[in-house]
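Appendix B. One record, verbatim.
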Amino acid sequence: MKIDKKIIKELTDYLNEFNLTEIEYTEKDTKIKVSKSSSSISNQSISAPSTSSTSVGKMTAETKSEIISGLQVTSPIIGTAYHSPEPGAKKFVEVGKKIKKGDTVMIVEAMKTMNHVPSTADGVVKEICVADGQAVEFGQTIIILE
């Protein structure tokens, strides 16, 4: 897969020009997401082909581009994601595990209610994109299937 640096540069320019914190571009099976944050995010499950730092006044921000391929399972609500039904219990999914459509992949807690998130398709877990106990947004990718 060849990464089109021109698209990443253009998205980064839009990010700065319109004072955005995140922008996403999707074409066929390629998804490019460029985001700006004030803290460095370390997540081994997301590949970052290009990272550059920009300085805006006194604030330093990191612009990170992510290319995600595969079928994405997203969070249906805002809340806190958990990998297992209770602390110390077996995780719902592991990287490399084969799952079926409808299997619980994670729990997202919102307002003291535990919401089971089902897989949207059959597949093999390629990546787990959120840490146990991490806050998630509506539509945020939580796992990627092959």
